[in-house]
Amino acid sequence: MTFTSKSTITQLQYLDEEGNVVQPLPAWADNLDLLVEFYRHMVLVRTYDKKAIALQRTGQMGTYPSHLGAEAIGIGVGAAMDVEDVYVPYYRDMPTMYMRGATMVHNMLYWGGTEQGSYFHRPDGKLSEDFPICVPIATQCTHATGVASAFKLRGEKRVAVTAIGDGGTSKGDFLEAINCAGAWQLPCIFVINNNQWAISVPRAIQCGAPTLAQKAIGAGIPGVQVDGNDIIAVYDAMLTALNRARAGKGATLIEAVSYRLSDHTTADDATRYRGSEEVNAAWKREPVKRLRNYLHNAGVWNEDKEQALQAECNAKVEEAVQQYLNHPKEPPESMMDHHFEQLVEPLASQREELIKKAMRMEGGQSHG
Ligand SMILES: Cc1ncc(C[n+]2csc(CCOP(=O)(O)OP(=O)(O)O)c2C)c(N)n1
């Protein structure tokens, strides 16, 4: 008889719900300035999230997917990556993209319907090679595998990182992508944002396996589960996976367990399918307060700093909103400008038609 797998998946956690340390911290966490930086980013993206929802509600932006509750995942993943790596995002990834150089303005432009939101620069000033937001579920995983394959073929020490929701891991694309990454030993990291809900489908009936991390076993890659509300755990798991990938040892699957504290998107009303009890319980585990408590206890955070940070974040968000609202409107045909390097028929003729129609509607104004 051959045992093909005998595995235990434990959840990596350093800080409990109250921000107390539950096991010795990794050496890098001695750097409290770094943790304060993480906290500042987490508060900023949370402040932005609230404003983005308000913009949609007041008709100033399109449908928007909130990342409330996923701040530790996004900031932890984005902070751990090197500037040369490539991130392949899904729609709930504003925090990671922000860490990679996509500003709040870019995010608003994207959800405001402008492809300019996908063109941004890396923190080192170079044009980003990260991918645009992927809305079709799980397809981004195959894209990441492709990017990682290119890195391997070219002998580059870069890593492709992607994220996906818990529901998305039921799709073939995800399973194909991790299978390929395992078979070809690709420098690729798949992060599952397990926020317990796929719109109205709860995690419990999404998949029969006790963890999503164990899907890695079938692909022959390590699968780890982390507390996705604990940024120290997220960042640490990412460092391990990135080092592994850069050393030529292949891919890793990281399941980050958190909770979607918001509606699925602004087009959803979660009160129709889940009770307030579970949401209230999830608020007790949320990531921002947890890190704040830890920093307080470590003596590097206090109420004055908190007030100053809130004011700073509000000001930054307001400034970004003004920039977004003042951004020139794109002509309607721009929606066809980003699919192909050269537009093919019948799209090319349809684009011309659209320009003529728009000109007629606007009384003959010319379009770019
Ligand atoms: C291929 C495809 N099928 C269906 C949808 C519609 N859809 C949008 S989000 C979603 C649920 C995704 O849930 P999950 O993967 O858990 O991610 P979350 O939104 O919770 O982060 C579905 C089915 C889609 N975008 N793409």
Please write out the topology.
Layout: E1 11-12, H1 32-57, H2 71-80, E2 86-88, H3 94-99, H4 104-111, H5 139-154, E3 160-165, H6 172-183, E4 188-194, E5 197-198, E6 201-202, H7 203-206, H8 215-219, E7 223-227, H9 231-246, E8 252-257, H10 276-283, H11 287-297, H12 303-326, H13 347-361
Parallel strand pairs: 1-7, 2-3, 3-4, 4-8, 7-8
Antiparallel strand pairs: 5-6
The protein binds thiamine diphosphate.
The string of secondary-structure elements, in order, is EHHEHHHEHEEEHHEHEHHHH
Instruction: Average the pLDDT over all residues and give the rounded result.
Output: 96
What count of helical segments does DSSP give? 13
Class based on secondary structure composition and strand pairing: alpha/beta
Name the assembly state. Answer: single chain
The strands making up the biggest β-sheet line up spatially as 1-7-8-4-3-2
Spatial extent as radius of gyration: 21 Å
Ligand roster: thiamine diphosphate
